[in-house]
Specification:
InterPro entries: F-box_dom (IPR001810). This is F-box domain-containing protein. It comes from Trichoderma harzianum CBS 226.95. Residues 4-29 form the F-box domain. The structure is a single chain. The chain is α/β, with parallel strands linked by helices. The chain has a domain at 315-448. Helix content is 31%, strand content 15%. The chain has a ten-stranded mixed β-sheet with strand order 1-3-7-8-9-10-11-12-14-13. Strands 2-4 form a two-stranded parallel ribbon. A hairpin with a 2-residue loop joins strand 13 and strand 14. Helix 1 crosses helix 4 (63-73) and helix 13 packs parallel to helix 14 (366-385). The longest helix has 20 residues, at 366-385.
Length: 448
């Protein structure tokens, strides 16, 4: 009978394989489908007991385990800051910007090659939640173009109602940041987490801030990702990104600045989580308010910064929110969505964490939330499944709803789709529809 073998006698490859089971999802993966307001703050430090049985505790056992766990320890990096000054022209950001210390560490230790995802969380004081008119001038990356109040013009376009940047600075892009990051990290995913106004300022995109005082959303999440097959691949976006850095946008200069992030890698998936809109339902005629959202800018195919992403690389779009207004879905999302292979939507909190009582307010009629949900889905289903599909929805191969836990609503949707488009679409699972007689790309199916 063979004597027992200890783990220290196993080949390094098997030790690495075993330790891989201790790996945990990134902070983004944990919160991407939930209210981002619940993302732990910088002062929410886990207790030492919470690290037991994790990849971090395993890395402290011995040198072999440390060596085997290093690729896992730095696979998902979280970078957190409140504000950062833009470096002067000609300076090397990696050497001069204190907040980039995490990147210097990764480069100097040779760990940068292990990083797959980067989550950038820009915190700001809790007292300024909802004060979008001013707080983005003090937090984020400074100086910034800081979009002031942006309202919707007669044609639905976003128009600046005031100066779009600080009087003491020119309207500048943040391409230096994206170029610095991607010069050293070949990321598969980048997640941006902050207030709507700070995200708009960071990306140089316009935003309507007229309703920020009532929506009072702490964080939104924007995620761009691509498959591992595109890693180290030489693509057009690199040259396109460089050109964007020196582009002048003419009439758009008041509300947008060049942003190379959207074309610096061939991103094929985008997720936007706009948090909870529940607070607006406590106001009179809530449906007249406009949420602070970068969705109109992200789906603006006329914006040069967005064109490569929307017309060439994007294949999958996920939209997550908590009871958004139906007008937001109908007026912004449905008519502007680009040609896609896959679309995912979730507009009700996930069960079992969802409790309707958590959203009750004396001035709110809880039925309004469900009415807006039903209206939004009715408009979306008609746009996708009524022949012929509306606009770019005709290219869609795969539709998924994260709200199928509501059995009555899901079964009603199934009956409608079978009646309206049964020859074209079929049910592929709970909350999932696949186009018939079309070969859905395997990557799309595997991602579901």
């Amino acid at each position: 009978m063979a004597s027992p073998m200890s783990i220290s006698q196993l080949p390094n490859e098997l030790v690495s394989y075993i330790l891989n089971f201790l790996d945990e999802p990134s902070i983004f993966e944990q919160y991407q489908y939930d209210d981002p307001a619940h993302i732990p703050g910088p002062d929410d430090v886990p207790s030492s007991d919470s690290f037991r049985g994790t990849i971090k505790s395993a890395s402290l056992v011995c040198r072999l385990w440390r060596r085997c766990t290093l690729p896992l320890l730095f696979r998902n990096v979280v970078w957190r800051f409140q504000h950062m000054a833009r470096p002067s022209s000609g300076e090397d950001p990696l050497s001069t910007v204190d907040e980039l210390e995490f990147l210097r560490f990764l480069v100097m230790t040779g760990l940068s090659r292990y990083v797959d995802s980067l989550s950038i969380i820009i915190d700001y004081p809790v007292t300024e939640i909802g004060e979008d008119f001013n707080h983005h001038t003090n937090w984020g990356i400074l100086p910034s173009h800081c979009p002031a109040l942006i309202h919707q013009g007669p044609g639905g376009d976003l128009v600046a109602a005031g100066p779009s940047y600080d009087n003491n600075s020119k309207c500048q892009s943040n391409n230096w940041l994206w170029q610095t990051i991607f010069e050293h990290l070949d990321l598969l995913t980048i997640n941006l987490i902050s207030s709507p106004a700070i995200l708009a300022s960071l990306l140089g995109r316009p935003i309507n801030l007229s309703g920020c005082w009532i929506f009072r959303q702490k964080f939104h999440i924007l995620s761009l990702s691509r498959s591992a097959d595109t890693r180290h691949q030489v693509t057009t976006p690199s040259s396109n990104a460089t050109a964007l850095a020196n582009t002048s946008f003419g009439n758009r200069a008041q509300t947008t600045v060049p942003c190379s992030l959207f074309s610096i890698r061939p991103w094929d998936s985008m997720l936007l989580n706009e948090g909870s809109s529940v607070k607006v339902y406590a106001t009179y005629e809530y449906f007249n308010h406009v949420p602070p959202s970068i969705l109109p800018a992200l789906l603006d195919s006329g914006d040069e910064s967005m064109q490569y992403l929307l017309r060439n690389s994007l294949r999958s779009l996920s939209y997550v929110a908590i009871f958004p207004l139906a007008t937001h879905i109908n007026d912004v999302l449905i008519p502007r969505v680009p040609a896609l292979e896959k679309f995912y939507i979730q507009i009700v909190p996930r069960a079992p964490s969802f409790a309707e009582d958590d959203y009750r307010h004396p001035a709110m009629d809880i039925s309004d939330l469900w009415m807006e949900r039903n209206t939004a889905y009715a408009q979306l289903v008609m746009a996708i499944f009524d022949p012929p599909p509306l606009g770019s929805w005709s290219s869609l191969q795969y539709f998924e709803s994260g709200d199928a836990v509501d059995r009555e609503a899901w079964e009603q949707a199934v009956r409608y789709v079978i009646f309206a488009a049964g020859a074209t679409w079929k049910v592929a699972g709970e909350g999932k529809f696949v186009r018939r007689n079309e070969k859905v790309p395997m990557a799309v199916l595997q991602a579901t």
